[in-house]
Amino acid sequence: MKLLNYQKLMKHDPTYLGEIINQLGQIIKFYEHPIKGDESCIIAVLHLEETACYTEFFDLENFYTNSDYNPIFKDGKWLSAFEL
Question: In the chain, fewer beta carbons within 10 Å around the N or the C end?
Answer without folding.
Answer: C
